[in-house]
Amino acid sequence: MYLSKEEERILNGEEGYVAQKSMEILTSLGDIYGADKLISISSCQIAGVSYKTIGDAGLFFISEFSKSSKVKVKSTLNPMGMDSSGWQRMGIKKEFAKKQHEIIDAYFKMGIDCSCTCTPYLIGNRPNCGEHIAWSESSAVSFANSVLGAKTNREGGPSSLASSILGKTPNYGLHLEKNRKAKVIIDVKVKIKSFSDVGALGNYVGSIIGSKVPYFKNLELDSDKLKSLGASMAASGSVALYHVEGLTPEYAKAIDDDIEKIEIGKEEIEESKCKLSSSDDMELICIGCPHCSIGEVKEALEIFKKEGRKFKGDIWICTSRYVKNELERTGVAQEIEKYAKLLADTCMVVAPIEEMYEKTATNSGKAAVYLPSLCKQKVKFGDLESLIKDFK
Ligand code: F3S
Q: Which atom of ligand 1 is nearest to 318's Cα?
């Protein structure tokens, strides 16, 4: 891979240890994937924040980096393991909270915006179409590539951190126009309406196409459901970019060959919903994977108002600090809190929920995949309205 004189100096350690390690990470990736050079980026989204997922080794790594480095581009963080101000009411232990705060302090020292959300594009880290970025949350990667038309590979936590320190990323994969073409047409023959329909569709498609770029036909979804679709495909497969006919910015130039075509009907959606459910029972209902927008929280409030207040267990609504603040300002958060806990900075997967619950219900295709594997949960998958009806 070609390196400029300045990049070579960094690789030789002339700009210090952290810059050198960051350059080593990026050049290794570039060599593995055949990048020709490093390119400048405008922003980073950094995963690897929850103490549950990175542990003491991760805390040590980030603390070392934070001693002598600052990020060069706008950088935001993925959810951490707890609500930073309301962790006690989640049932989080003191020792966990202490370690979690240390991780956030280290990121903060580097100049990173510690708002902790997987929807950075809803809180100001929203790249323009065509911009090169280095993001490392799979649902955010999918949204940025597909819905915003920005360009990023599916980075890991360390590589996105290295990119934020150097302001660069290796030029390969989805940074190259030729790799952004669709490889398979998904013709949706059934009406996809609810979040559970979207989650089931994404789960089915991701599991059969792996990392290919799909092109959806006959799909009408709003932005909240597109974020849910991308998250679900990224969880069951490793889809990082998709196109939707008539909707997403690159669809018009996404197909140029005679490519494979797959039809999805009612049967596939139902099969997927069954696969995502492993329990009829639930102790907790969680929504907000990816983090809820203001609109989604308001929709949930309407459902709660219709269904009443007495539930068999807890309800968590996960969102960003920014959205929570906005909802507090307008009085919606206070209303929601009569029915559910509105949690910021965290989510059902990266919080240590396995220490508190065994059976969790969700309307998210992504959460339904990760809750059993990362949180030892039995899962009930469905729409919020029907889950709430069964939770009384
Ligand atoms: Fe976000 Fe957590 Fe889901 S990071 S996409 S809410 S697993």
A: 6
